[in-house]
């Protein structure tokens, strides 16, 4: 029996790249650099391309990013996907320079709050159709559509699966078929559950798999492997992205790790994890993108891991994020959250903001807060 069963998804095209159906599972990644830094981002695209990326994603936030992307486009032949972040209206500006658009249904409410979501999706589909681009509906558990969050109170998996299904129905209703879906979270168990539920409801829609903010190797690789093994071996998943917190020059490793995991699954080489793998200290870290505010973020994530090793046996989650835009939301479910600004790092405990500290002071402050969290958990269980 083949280890990877036949996939039921239809095949879509990103220019010459086929995704879904009988096509090989495509491996992609994302530039971690600021898009406006044309030299660094072009270099980043090249690093990923040299590592064998089938597709490279770049985030855009502003007209300046769009202008930079036009120059980056001229310097590479790589297939480019663009992440529209909150600003879906930039799709029309960026479309001439890219091959695929990604929008996040949970971000569509940020701009033009009175405009119906249906109209915003219709605009994106029109742009994609006019420029012959593929589309990704990219749902993320860290940014759930507020309406669904309320409707599915306490059931995040239900909310994100419904969000993906609703948007598929919208795009289908517009007669557009070159789209795929991703449903991501930092917890591989949630990724497995959500993608299985979605695939059961819409086996025809190709899926992009990923464990977002998987963090630093080796744990980030293990978390990703757990999800991919369980999904790909069930015939779920048509393209993958491994999200690791790595120095910019090492980002090619995301592609190498992705291909290795796929080769292992195909050869029947599965790795199990001990039942207590998810116990103890859990450090979540974002992979960085155009929004990263200070390159010290990568070193900070490593320093947090090193400094907190004394608490390895405690069930505490610490999230380390690279920017002020997504940092506060993405750290919501963590016991302690850090997110970077240009010259300072914000710290929060649960939903309580503790303040902003310099890159030199943050580790000491984090240690105090971590000791406090551990002491409180000990009191509550005694
Ligand atoms: S947290 Fe910010 S810097 Fe990190 S990947 Fe998300 S948007 Fe990019």
The low-confidence runs, each spanning 5 or more residues with pLDDT under 50, are none
CATH H level, superfamily name of the largest domain: Dihydropteroate synthase-like
What's the total number of strands? 15
Number of helices: 12
Bound molecule types: iron/sulfur cluster
What's the domain count? 2
Q: What does the radius of gyration come to? A: 20 Å
Approximately how much helix is present in the residues? Answer: 25-40%
- Corresponding CATH architecture of the largest domain: Alpha-Beta Barrel
Strand content: 15-25%
Please give a handful of descriptors for the protein shown:
8-stranded parallel beta barrel; TIM Barrel; binds iron/sulfur cluster; alpha/beta
Please provide a written account of the structure.
This protein has twelve helices and 15 strands. With 382 residues, it is an alpha/beta fold. It folds into two domains: 12-266, TIM Barrel (Alpha-Beta Barrel); 282-381, Sulfite Reductase Hemoprotein, domain 1, CATH 3.30.413.10. The strands form three sheets. It has an eight-stranded parallel beta barrel, surrounded by six helices. Strands 11-12-13-14-15 form a five-stranded mixed beta sheet. α1 (38-50) packs parallel to α9. The chain starts with 11 loop residues before the first strand and ends with a helix. Iron/sulfur cluster (SF4) is lined by residues 286-289, 291-292, 321-323, 325-327, 330.
Summarize it.
With about 375 residues, the protein is of the alpha/beta class.
What's the layout of helices and strands?
Blueprint: E1 12-14, E2 17-19, E3 26-30, H1 38-50, E4 55-59, H2 63-75, E5 80-83, H3 91-94, E6 100-103, H4 117-131, E7 134-140, H5 146-151, H6 156-173, E8 179-184, H7 188-201, E9 207-209, H8 219-232, E10 239-241, H9 252-266, E11 282-285, H10 296-307, E12 317-321, H11 327-330, E13 336-340, E14 344-349, E15 352-358, H12 362-381
Parallel strand pairs: 3-4, 3-10, 4-5, 5-6, 6-7, 7-8, 8-9, 9-10, 11-12, 12-13
Antiparallel strand pairs: 1-2, 13-14, 14-15
Helix pairs in contact: 1-2, 1-9, 6-7, 7-8, 8-9
Bound molecules: iron/sulfur cluster.
């Amino acid at each position: 029996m083949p280890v990877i069963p036949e996939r039921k998804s239809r095949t879509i095209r990103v220019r010459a790249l086929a995704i879904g159906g009988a096509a090989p599972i495509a491996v992609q990644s994302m530039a971690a650099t600021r898009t406006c830094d044309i030299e660094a981002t072009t270099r980043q695209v090249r690093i990923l391309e040299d590592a064998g990326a089938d597709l490279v994603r770049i985030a855009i936030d502003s007209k300046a990013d769009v202008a930079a992307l036009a120059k980056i486009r001229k310097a590479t032949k790589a297939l480019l996907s663009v992440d529209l972040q909150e600003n879906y209206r930039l799709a029309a500006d960026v479309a001439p320079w890219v091959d695929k658009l990604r929008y996040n249904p949970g971000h569509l409410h940020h701009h033009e709050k009175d405009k119906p979501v249906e109209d915003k999706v219709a605009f994106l589909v029109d742009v994609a159709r006019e420029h012959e681009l593929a589309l990704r509906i990219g749902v993320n558990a860290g940014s759930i559509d507020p309406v669904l969050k309320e409707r599915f109170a306490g059931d995040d998996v239900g909310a994100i699966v419904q969000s993906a299904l609703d948007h598929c129905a919208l795009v289908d209703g517009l007669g557009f078929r070159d789209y795929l879906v991703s449903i991501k979270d930092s917890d591989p168990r949630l990724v497995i559950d959500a993608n299985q539920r979605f695939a059961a409801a819409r086996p025809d829609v190709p899926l992009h798999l990923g464990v977002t903010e998987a963090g630093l190797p080796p744990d980030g690789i293990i978390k990703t492997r757990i999800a991919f093994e369980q999904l790909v071996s069930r015939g779920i998943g048509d393209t993958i992205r491994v999200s690791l917190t790595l120095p910019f020059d090492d980002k090619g490793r995301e592609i190498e790790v992705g291909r290795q995991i796929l080769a292992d699954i195909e050869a029947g080489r599965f790795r199990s994890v001990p039942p207590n793998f998810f116990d103890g200290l859990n450090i979540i870290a974002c992979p960085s993108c155009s929004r990263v505010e200070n390159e010290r973020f990568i070193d900070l994530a490593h320093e947090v891991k090193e400094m907190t090793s004394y608490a390895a046996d405690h069930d505490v989650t610490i999230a380390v994020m690279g920017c002020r835009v997504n940092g506060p939301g993405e750290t919501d479910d963590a016991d302690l959250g850090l997110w970077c600004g240009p010259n300072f790092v914000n710290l929060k405990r649960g939903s309580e903001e503790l303040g902003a500290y310099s890159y030199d002071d943050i580790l000491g402050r984090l240690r105090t807060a971590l000791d406090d969290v551990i002491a409180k958990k000990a009191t509550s269980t005694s």
